[in-house]
Amino acid sequence: MKAGICARILLLALMAFSLGACEGEGTQFNSVDITGADYGRDFALTDPAGNIRQLADFRGKVVLVFFGFLQCPDVCPTSLLRAAEVKRLLGRDGERLQVIFITLDPERDLPPIIREYTAAFAPDFLGLYANPEKTQETANAFRVYYRKVATGSSYTVEHSALSYLYDPEGRLRLAVKHETTAEALAADVRALLHPVISH
After folding, report:
1. How far apart (Å, rounded) are the C-alpha atoms in residues 58 and 185?
2. What CATH code would you report for 29-193?
């Protein structure tokens, strides 16, 4: 009896493994495939309405996460413009893409300004923030580099420019380089929304 149970468990495990191996087998992404990465697994940050948001809130959608700051002169606005173009290219599938902007400058990026900023790119883009300590903790958890750099009487924020793509199950799948085109990124989002099952 015990041997029979063990055999059935082993068979189920092998079936699960082979099904997992078949899903998306041969998919060629344009972005860097980091499936199984041990970082960037979740966040707990505040939206402009004062609600705590986590990845689980967006289950069923592909989630694109980008870290930056509102006074960023080039990398941040171009990344968000690209994300808006991706939504356009996806057509109806664009409704299943959630773009999240996480500020690295919570001292200046206040909730009403974050809301205005993200809405300028697309009405459903979501900006999130935390206090400086939580911001640093979250950046570390995502392996995001940033630091304040003095500029006269003010400062700017140097930061890494990768975006992260999560599949509809909430798993981190791809690291998106800043130079990736909207067309290439749209193809990656589409591949995550409609994985090919091959046997």
Report:
1. 19
2. 3.40.30.10
Residue 150, amino acid:
A
Mean pLDDT of all residues in the chain?
Answer: 88
Structure tokens at 111: 């909730």
Is the CB of residue 161 less than 8 Å from the CB of residue 178?
Answer: yes
* Tokens found for residue 198: 């091959």
pLDDT tens, residue by residue, 66-88: 999 999 999 999 999 999 999 99
C-beta separation of 182 from 86 below 8 A: yes
The kind and range of the H/E element at 111 are helix 111-119
CB 177 within 8 A of CB 32: yes
Query: What are 19-43's pLDDT values in tens digits?
Result: 333 444 557 999 999 999 999 999 9
Give me 10's structure tokens: 């082993």
